[in-house]
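Morning run. Coffee first, then this:
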Amino acid sequence: MKSILEASQAIKDQIIEDRHNLHRRPEFGFDLPETAAYVQKRLAEMGIESQPCGGPIDPDLRKKFTFAGFPDMENSTGVVATIGKGEPCILLRADMDALPMQEAEGLVDFVSEKPGVAHMCGHDTHTAMLLGAAKLLKDREDELCGTVKLMFQTGEECGCGSKFMVEHGVLENPKVDAAFAIHIMSNEEKGVVGYTPGITSAAMDTFMIKIKGKGGHSSMPQDCVDPLMIINQLYTTLNLLSCREIDPRETVALTAGKCGGGTAANVIPDTADMQVAARTFNRDVTNHLVQRIPEIVDHTVKMWRGDYEIMPFHTPSTYTDADLCDELKPFISEIMGEDRVKVMPCMAGTEDFGYVTEQVPGMFAWLGVGSKDSAPMHNPNMFVDEEMLPYGSAIHANVAIEWLKKNQK
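And here it is:
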């Protein structure tokens, strides 16, 4: 029988075709009906049964996301499937959602067919690589010393898609004993696999704030409550938090990525909007900011006679289990070569695989598919060297096969 990598290279065209099909029809958020249907169709063609894993979204959470500017999303349409049987069980995860952004014109010849929506974070490649791994594992199902569970996740870019799937039982029936995920990195050297034992990604706390003032003519500010002035004060004050209330030895990235309102120079508007994200690596620091940001919003807005609505979101850090890394590194090295698998600094970005690794030992790895000079993720020029995709499929499959063999019961 061919090696795992040889078998993966033999299905490279199919992996790339899956990526292209997903790339052309991107969907963002939790409700991904086309994407989920495509995944289930492809799994069925391999003889793999699959089930939806998700369901209706809580109305309060729907309200938060519509408040943040997302369309109303009624359902989460994750997909789960299993290959093999019995204990132990290892989960392999891929996220499926795209971003609400436009990719650069002429970048690829399989461009998104949906204006303003694009797979510029590589989730189309993640799904394609896991579909490739599903084929490899199904062809070797008789050799499996347990169960492989495939998790195709929605809403990673929303920060809590994996949370929905955990709540809907993705880690049960059969019970998951370990979990593994790969994320491509477009601006990392192709063929390098990185991982970080311990804290792998930042926690992120986002606050959506709507300031309510009293609009009017700009010549009569005394008769108005200016929400733009309030939001300016709030912007300045919040940016002092990390340098005045946090130990300088800690790392905090606090950004007001959206801030403003109004329509004309001579009109004081009724409302203004701000969206603030705080990324942290220390739980005590996280807790401090989660307490202080709403306090500062409350005091600042009321000081200037305004009112407000605030909606918080939380995504935990992803924690990579050091012992599991030691177990899985040799299986990754069998595919990539020992010198290509490296410990790297933790990501400043946030990854919601943390909802899984809060419950079971997990390893989160990233696969370089470009170079240091390439456009980064979430950039309209983000580009993927598709020659690396069979390597991702082979890593998934080899990790699952060998871990089950080592931990068979």
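The chain has a mean pLDDT of 94. Good start to the day.
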